[in-house]
Amino acid sequence: MTADSKPAEAVAVVDGQTVDKLPADLYIPPDALVVFLETFEGPLDLLLYLIRRRNLDLLELSVADITDQYMSYIDLMIELKLDLAGEYLVMAATLAEIKSRLLLPRQEDAEEEDDPRMALIERLQEYERIKSAAHQIGDLPRMDRDIFPLSPERPERVREQAHPQVDLREVLAALVDVMRRSEAFLHHAVRQEPLSVRDRMANVLAVLDQAKEFVPFTELFKPEEGRAGVVVTFLAITELLREGMADLTQSEPFAPIYLRAASEPVST
Amino acid sequence: MNEQLDAAQLKRIVEAALMAAGEPLSVNRLAALFRPGELHPQEGRKRIRDSLAHLGEEAEGRGYELKQVASGYRFQVRQALSPWISRLWEEKPPRYSRALLETLALIVYRQPVTRADIESVRGVAVSQNILRTLLERGWIRVVGQRESPGRPNLYGATRGFLDYFNLQSFDDLPPLDKVQQKIEQELKQLTKPVMEAESADGEAQPGTAEALAEVVQLPTTRD
Amino acid sequence: MNEQLDAAQLKRIVEAALMAAGEPLSVNRLAALFRPGELHPQEGRKRIRDSLAHLGEEAEGRGYELKQVASGYRFQVRQALSPWISRLWEEKPPRYSRALLETLALIVYRQPVTRADIESVRGVAVSQNILRTLLERGWIRVVGQRESPGRPNLYGATRGFLDYFNLQSFDDLPPLDKVQQKIEQELKQLTKPVMEAESADGEAQPGTAEALAEVVQLPTTRD
User: What is the mean pLDDT of residues A38-50?
Assistant: First the structure.
């Protein structure tokens, strides 16, 4: 926009129509012009505006014309001391470069060469797509403006601690593990023979008497006897303890447990 | 502009306003939503009251009700539904310990068993807490006493257990020999990782559970 | 414990939950409100879907509707009533700048994208503020890093975005090509009056200023 008073100079012929676009801007109060220029979202936006304003097809972009107009807007922005972002100047340089390349005499073998405008046109197209998509998104019905969710009064909350959820597979996995730990299960899982707690009490007592000192609790069990054997031994031990025929010691929680025969058997 | 709203539209707007407001609305506040052309200034209040009466009736038998409180009318979710609604904000329930699951498994597969039975298999004491939790959950019950010194309680699993795990009867439990087979297979290959995992945390291992599920066809409990 | 809920009660609970939740609820989330004894784990989902269908039908002609959005179902005021409902609040809904909407559009239509991608399409720097706002609103999120120098964050749009804009999936967004046609038509119409005014005469006159104001507004109006 080379300044005032030269409206005739900028007359353009667009699609056979004579259009004089310069004066309009010139008669805008400077404040409005600042607002106007500030609404551009960058050089592509400005460029798109310049092209669209002339109702031109992007593909028929006349770089020479548009470059001139673009530069005049840049001048205007500088004049109005607008915060001119570097991107605008980069675009100016790009335009100037394309323009100069188009002005260079074409070499014959360069006919297949890419149109220097293409990269710019592609960028403009993509930007235009996104710009219009932004419009569309802005127009979508949205919460707070068009969509209001219901919010009736909620009932008073019932404090109820939920029960943990358990999957049957977890139970089975637990079973697998506990059975594995109880070695008895592995070797002779099903063979059962009658075992008497009384008999076992006698056996255990015999072991303790023979040892005459503390015997580790675990040594009293014979895994090869199977689960039932373990149970019977355990019952026998508890019975011996209950009847005061054996003593049990453990130095601290989780420490090994030891047994020995009671020093003074309590008479019944 | 001068066309008065018909009763249906008026009721819809009153309903929507009460539902969306998030606070009670007085008849005056409701009336202020309309432009003079839409609702007659004098009759308008009466018409709004009529709408409110209708809305109150229509809410019968629904999940919410229309309630009049000091500052106006509001819709509220029925208090009777609170047990379910509260679950929307319930924290994730804790997980059961490994010890509890093992105890449960032993009771289910070896019922009836005493506490001592469980302890002898697990090799460690069973805390009273675990038994209490299982009893409270309704998964186990005392089915009798063993005729042995101390007459210890015998525990068995309940119908509640079957219901929870979506089983018809205890026969629907995967047979133990299949579980056992699987254990032995696994032992050959998996002992190490499992042992490591066990020491890492006491939680049920999904790995084992999934491996098991491949062999044993299970009814799905929860999705 | 073993009694399944009847259809009426189930529907009431689903209705109440949707109303009270304050956010869309998925069928899974609804199903989680029930204990196994109340709702059959397998059939339950189907029954919940049936309830939802009923509730949707029953809302016909009422002030609200049942809407399915990306993360589930929600009740919302019928859009046709929003002119009245928005009068409940003095505050105007937030407006979003063009820069924000363009950035959002790029992320939505071209996801996943880096900040540099956005900048190269828009031709200007993207302020950190815009990205922060979008992240805080829960409309976008970091979906990964691009394997290029600096490993920049890749952004994508969220379910929250879809929910907020009343969409079920990204397929419901207006297709980009159509969008382009529409905007071209719009631009033609918008630019015409300016051209006419311009060519009519070169004198200072309010007509031109107004016509231009239209153009000036073009970028900002669609909040």
Answer: 87
Read off φ and ψ for residue A243, nearest 5 degrees: -85, 5
**Which residue out of A28, A48, A54, A129 would a mutagenesis test of the C interface target, given it has the greatest number of C Cβ atoms within 10 Å?**
A129
Inside any domain, residue C88: no
pLDDT in tens, A180-201: 777 654 444 444 445 677 778 8
* CA dist B121 → A230, B11, B63 (Å): 7, 69, 51
Q: What is the CATH number of the domain that holds C12?
A: 1.10.10.10
Instruction: Say if residue C110 is in the same domain as residue C60.
Output: no
Which residues in chain C (131-190) have CB-CB distances under 8 A to chain B?
A: none
Structural domain of residue B211, as residue ranges?
98-215
CB atoms within 10 A of CB C205: 14
User: In this complex, do A23 and C220 lie within 8 Å of one another by their Cβ atoms?
Assistant: no
Q: B186: which residues sit within 8 A by CB, 6+ positions away? A: A176, B194, B208, B211
C112: preceding bond cis by omega (within 30 degrees): yes
- Return the amino acid letter for B86: S
Give the residue on B whose Cα is nearest the Cα of C64.
B16
Nearest CA in chain A to B64: A152
Residue B206 and residue B103 in one domain:
yes
Torsion angle, alpha carbons of C182, C184, C185, C187, to 10: 120
Q: B37: pLDDT confidence band, cut at 50, 70 and 90?
A: confident
Q: Nearest residue on chain A to B75, judged by CA atoms?
A: A152
Whole-number Å distance between alpha carbons of B50 and B8: 11
A31-35, A170-174, C36-40, C207-211: the lowest-pLDDT one = C207-211
Residues B59 and B161 in one domain: no
Best mutation target, B120, B139, B177, B192, to test chain A (most A CBs within 10 A): B120
Mean pLDDT confidence for C89-116 = 92
Count Cβ–Cβ pairs < 8 Å, chain B vs chain C: 104
| C-alpha–C-alpha distance, residues B86 and A161, integer Å | 11
Domain contains C220: no
* Angle between the N-to-C axes of helices C115-122 and C98-110, in degrees from 0 to 180, rounded to the nearest 10: 120
Question: How many residues make up chain A in this entry?
Answer: 268
Note whether B119 and B208 are same-domain residues.
yes
Domain membership flag for residue C209: yes
Distance from CA of C75 to the nearest CA of A (A): 6
Q: Are residues B128 and B29 part of one domain?
A: no
With a threshold of 0.80, does the pTM exceed it? Answer: no
- Adjacent-strand bridge partners of A233: none
Tokens of B59: 């809410």
Question: Between chain A and chain C, how many beta carbons pairs sit less than 8 Å apart?
Answer: 184
Place of tokens 């260079």: A104
In a domain, C166, yes or no: yes
pLDDT band at C119 (very low <50, low <70, confident <90, very high): very high
Residue scoring higher pLDDT (B177 or C22):
C22
DSSP letter string over C34-99?
A: S-TTTS-TTHHHHHHHHHHHHHHHHTTTSSEEEEEETTEEEEEE-GGGHHHHGGG-SSPPPP--HH
What span, in angstroms and rounded, lies between the C-alpha atoms of C187 and C196?
14
